[in-house]
Design a protein that fits this description.
16 helices; 12 strands; alpha/beta; about 400 residues; 2 domains; 7-stranded mixed β-sheet; 3-stranded antiparallel β-sheet; single chain
């Protein structure tokens, strides 16, 4: 039965206040350049648009046309690749993390000599073994693109994600930490590539006053609704509607338009992002503190594996991921957490090859590790709204449901 309840947001998006809308002017692109030490950082309509601009830039640097992505990742990666007129090659993930299955990746590279780029996805704020994939890409003569949509502020061996690849991109979407409701950043670490990217963005994007006005209104709506008293209306209500309609992909908010917008972001929305930037490290500290409680209390629970940062790395923990040996137990815990409004969720509903609407643009294949991850994993919220009692109630449900 559909019933209103207070609900903790499932991810650690920044909560916005009035002062965020009226703070001092500043340069969000410069914030990213300084933070990452990169040559170029360009604000785009979305993380997907940023990725698309990168792909369009790469087409002018090589005659190769295939891009490798992991089998457990956001459908928008495949959509952007298709829109750029490129081909997708899927590689399975490892058995117990979001990294590639590196043996399979090596095998793919041994057969396919058309690899334009490899995408390393730092999913759940967890840095992959980026030096390993960087070595493979260099031997292959392919570009390395870091997908940092969920990893702003995460480290690999004390170096920020987004600073290893030839290109990287970040998301400023609602619920993903620092936000301008819908936004992204394309980052380049080599000046010569930066100039090409800027030219490509200038040629492909344009102003859209109506669409941008809508985004400003939606950003104001986010500031109002992204809190436990109202989150039910933007998370649970749409999910239950689409479940009732029998559309599990839309229920998971994972159906995306192939004609995604690429228009320019207004200076006013960029200013709101700039105002938030000074809070980045303190917000990450809060997220990590919540994750550390989960990690301590759930570390030795039978039948559950915690997906956590490697030694020498730092996650920003936008949420914490659990992998259950028993998928039915996962389902029961997830349902109970959702019914309790404690922010339990999933990352993706299925392996990327199993989205029906993507099948016309993807190669077929068997990706057992990605399918296992989709069927056996769930996430715990590290939202700023999460209280200590909420954390321990979530822990109790995970342990005893």
């Amino acid at each position: 039965m559909l019933k209103y309840r207070k609900e903790i947001p499932p991810t650690a998006g920044f909560a916005l206040s009035v002062k965020d809308f009226y703070g001092p002017a500043g340069d969000l692109e410069n914030d990213f350049r300084n933070y990452l030490g990169s040559a170029t950082a360009k604000i785009a309509y979305s993380g997907t648009a940023a990725f698309y601009f990168i792909l369009e830039t790469l087409k002018g640097l090589s005659s190769k046309r295939t891009v490798i992505i992991p089998a457990y990742t956001c459908p928008l990666l495949a959509i952007a690749i298709a829109r750029a007129g490129l081909k997708t090659q899927i590689c399975d993930i490892s058995e117990d993390s979001f990294d590639y299955d590196y043996q399979q990746l090596e095998n793919i590279c041994g057969v396919n000599k058309d690899i334009l780029a490899m995408v390393s996805v730092h999913l759940a704020g967890l840095a992959v073994e980026i030096e390993k994939i960087k070595g493979i890409s260099q031997r292959q003569g392919a570009f390395l693109i870091e997908d940092c949509a969920q990893s702003l502020g995460a480290w690999y061996q004390s170096k920020l994600t987004g600073t290893f690849g030839d290109f990287s991109f970040f998301s400023l979407c609602r619920g993903k930490g620092l936000t301008i409701y819908e936004g992204g950043v394309a980052v380049v670490n080599k000046p010569e590539y930066g100039r090409l990217l800027e030219q490509k963005i200038k040629r492909l994007s344009n102003k859209d006053i109506i669409s941008e006005t809508v985004k400003i209104i939606e950003l104001a709506g986010y500031a109002i609704f992204y809190r436990p008293q109202l989150a039910w209306f933007i998370f649970s209500l749409p999910r239950e509607f689409w479940k009732f309609k029998g559309d599990q992909v839309r229920a998971a908010a994972e159906y995306f338009d192939f004609n995604f917008p690429i228009h320019r972001v207004s200076g006013w929305r960029q200013k709101i992002g700039h105002v938030q930037f000074s809070r980045l490290e303190s917000e990450i500290d809060k997220q990590r503190q919540k994750a550390e409680v989960y990690l301590k209390e759930l570390n030795n629970v039978s039948g559950i594996q915690l997906v956590k940062e490697r030694e020498g790395c730092r996650s920003n923990y936008p949420y914490l991921t659990l992998i259950f040996q028993d998928s039915q137990r996962r389902d029961a815990v997830l349902e109970k957490l959702r019914d309790s409004g404690l922010g339990g969720s999933q990352i993706y509903a299925c392996a990327i090859c199993d989205y029906e609407y993507l099948k016309p643009i993807l190669p077929t294949g068997d990706f057992p590790n990605a399918r296992f991850m989709a069927d056996h994993s769930m996430t715990l919220s590290t939202s700023v709204f999460l209280k200590e009692k909420d954390i321990f109630e979530a822990i109790r449900i995970v342990k005893f449901q």
